[in-house]
Amino acid sequence: MPLIIMCGFPCSGKSKRAQELRNYLENRGKTVYLASDESSSLDRNTVYSASANEKEARGLLKSAVERLISRDDVVILDSLNYIKGYRYELYCVAKAHKTTHCIVHCDTSKEICSEWNKTRESKYNDEILDALVMRFEPPDSRNRWDSPLFVIQVDDDLPFESIYDALINRVPPPPNQATQPQPLSATNFLYELDKITQEIVTVLINSQRTFVPGDHITVPGTSEKISFTKHTTFFSALNNRRISNFGHLGALAQRGLTVSVCTRKSRFISQVTA
């Protein structure tokens, strides 16, 4: 299920909106997880007083999202999320898990945020609050990682149905190909390998009946031609075929790579004609 990224100035009402969303989604039968600074036991003034502390805190929150996100549950990240590069990272997390996401931007003025901050027990220092407001990078719906974007003013009601539709009824973007595990080989790898090498052995042995040293023989399935310098017996070719097959399998197991069919043919041919 999707990822909801809350975004806004400090003390802009993000936690209240996040709780409203959680209640609504749970009433719709969804399992909802809430990740926030408080749930990660992060002290605001300590975290945002130094860039190193802030970077570590973002890493903790991102790890929490990666741990909780799935295709069945909703995750709400309640934090400042004021850096567009960080929002892009979260977008990539949702994309890699083949699920949707959205941004809920609590667009509250600095003056109101300052007033609300003064009434809280755990409040920001004035210097830190001003610095965070100055560094804030507002989301832009033209960016794919900031879309769909829901901008909420102080007196607005949350568009629950629109958010639900954007998250649940929208097709998630396809994950990047580079992040998906690639199969080491086709399921019929052994059969194809055995068939190819058997065909080559048969053609080479039959061709020896009429060839003279220096003649070129076309290898089936390729554009390569080989020249025999000595007579090769059927059992010798069969033995080279067996060694070639097991050798390629061993290389695949050790290196975790898939060797192309053409490469296998070339190596096998060199063994047969050696």
UniProtKB/TrEMBL annotation:
GO terms for molecular function: ATP binding. It comes from the Eukaryota. Keywords: ATP-binding, Nucleotide-binding. One of its GO terms (biological process) is regulation of transcription by RNA polymerase II. Belongs to the KTI12 family. This is Protein KTI12 homolog.
